[in-house]
Design brief:
By secondary structure, this protein is α/β, with parallel strands linked by helices. The protein has nine helices and 16 strands. Strands 3, 5, 6, 7, 8, 15 and 16 form a seven-stranded mixed beta sheet that branches. A six-stranded parallel beta sheet has the order 11-10-9-12-13-14, with helices on both faces. A three-stranded antiparallel beta sheet has the order 2-1-4, with no helix packed on it. 43% of the residues are buried.
Amino acid sequence: MSATSTQVQLVARPHGRPTPDCFRTLTLDLPPLTDGQVRVRNEFISVDPYMRGRMNDAKSYTPPYALGETMTGAAVGRVVESAAEGLAPGDTVLHTLGWRDVAQGDAAQFRVVPKLPGLPLSVHLGILGMTGYTAYVGLRKIAALTPGETVFVSGAAGAVGTAVGQIARRLGAARVVGSAGSAAKVDLLTSRYGYDAAFSYKDAPVRTQLPALVPDGVDVFFDNVGGDHLEAALDVMNRDGRVALCGAISAYNATTRAPGPDNMALLITQGLTLRGFTVGSHTELYGDFLRDMSGWLTAGEVVFDETVVDGIDHALDAFDALMAGANVGKMVVRIDPAV
């Protein structure tokens, strides 16, 4: 069976905010399958903040995107043709071949995931995927949250942040406070995602707003933003507080060096722990996560939202909107709206 694949490639390193000329979209003819290979029609692809870092030619926890090659990342779809044992047409699979409408490769690159009644396949990219697991690992292992503690979450209305608030509740947090970029998102945090209080960082400096919302201080700070949020959190951390450094989206498009917090001495006087992490280095809790999150979803104790952009040709629009904070919950690209 002949087939084509429309793919998005990085062709130039962005300086600051990525622009369309840094990318190209092209359609390639796919060769016939060889033994052990499968062809998958993607239904959803994931766009995530970490992808901005991979566009730079810089040392990181994962290699940068190569110029002239298709952008990789999480995607979920259905097998349409198979020359491999154990995978058949119609199977739903998760993979990391990313920004393309049709993916083809060795069967080992694809993992079968269940079809969950009433839920879209994209759930495997969000609350039941890397973003949900990131929140789980950050709270359970990196920050070692214990019942009765106060949690502050920056960037709380994003995919990870909306999961963090709810998981913190399930793990026994006494108070959960978050930041977001608009009044509408602040309302969602408190009405839908389990937050006791929230504020818009656009209304006034974070350092000014946060203390009134955490009168007893903060035990755990889950940081997706960095910069002024980290500085403000250090001011109010309780003794032996822990900071899970998940992201620094405030600096991802920066073209000049951002100033660091001016209160780092608090790490010493308050005995604070700051620990950065990437979820790929922490696989040991994955079984616990699937058990817990599946149960919470089934019981209605955890909810999720998605921002969906239609069409592979609009993947860059989705990424740009994500980096501008235009999403609520997980940002995904739906390859074929008719599916």
